[in-house]
Amino acid sequence: MPEALAARLAAVRERIARAAARAGRSSEEITLVGVSKQQPAEAVAALVAAGLAHCGENFVQEAREKIPRVVSLIGAHEPAPRWHFIGRLQRNKAKLAAELFDVVEAVDRQELAEALSTHAAAAGRTLAVLLQVNVSGEVQKGGAALSALAPLAHAVARLPALRLVGLMTVPAASEQPEATRPAFAQLRRLRDALQRGAPELALPELSMGMSADFEVAIEEGATIVRVGSALFGPRGEST
To answer: Which whole-number Å values give the CA distances from 153 to 19, 112, 128, 147, 219, in the listed order?
Structure first.
């Protein structure tokens, strides 16, 4: 129901504000991305109407159907949200991703970045991108290896239709939010080291933290948090 979704949005914003205050930060520094994968367009539109300005999708095919539906539902009464792609992206989906999304958070290899730049330029667009970093070293997880990060950052920064704005990570899964703190702190240190070594790189964004641990991520410097179940409820409940 729209009222329940709006109440969840308000509750998440309050949690963001409290976490930011604990870290001596302003909540205005934090972008909330509502992770809307496998959620109905009606629920997404209701959250947008309640003030959600950024939505995240994990699957290009799902987004191709959902994004126009959300835009149609909100009509001219609300500004369209900015769409973030936050899943693993295959190169053969780069054209569609470059047309659908405003931000691609999961760039982890040069050939993918080059494909996105080519297709964004053809569409007359400039994409904001973040480099996904595999801080946990899990072989099954996407993300650039730590040793590959600096060369990748410099290569992406040179591409004409991409604007490199920061780093993103998905830490190893844990039931304890505090267990993810070292990964978040490491991403911040990696960003800081990159900028010290190459002042021409502007990397203001750190995308880290999800429903279970976004408050810890904010305390460690997150500027983007990706929140799904805390906004939409368990799968199917938001309908």
So the answer is: 30, 13, 13, 11, 25
Query: Count of domains in the chain?
Result: 1
Question: How many whole angstroms separate alpha carbon 161 and alpha carbon 159?
Answer: 6
* Residue 38 within a domain: yes
pLDDT digits (tens, 9 = 90+) for 193-225: 999 999 899 999 999 999 999 999 999 999 999
Residue 184 lies in a domain: yes
Contact 70, 45 (CB under 8 A): yes
Render pLDDT for 59-100 as a digit per residue (tens, 0 to 9). Answer: 999 999 999 999 999 987 778 899 999 999 999 999 999 999
Q: Is residue 165 part of a domain?
A: yes
CA–CA separation, 175 and 213 (whole Å): 9
Coil, helix or strand at residue 115: helix
Place 236 in a pLDDT band, splitting at 50, 70 and 90. low
The string of pLDDT tens digits covering residues 107-141 is 999 999 999 999 999 999 999 999 999 998 877 77
pLDDT of res. 239: 47
**Residue 83, CA atoms < 13 Å, CB-side half-sphere:** 25
The domain that holds 52 is classified in CATH as 3.20.20.10
- Domain range for 68 is 2-228
Residue 136 is assigned to a structural domain of this protein: yes
Q: With contact defined as beta carbons under 8 Å apart, do 166 and 203 qualify? A: yes
Q: Residue 186's closest CA among 214, 211, 220, 158?
A: 220
Q: List all residues 6 or more positions away from 239 whose beta carbon is below 8 Å from its beta carbon.
A: 40, 42, 43
What pTM was computed for the model? 0.95
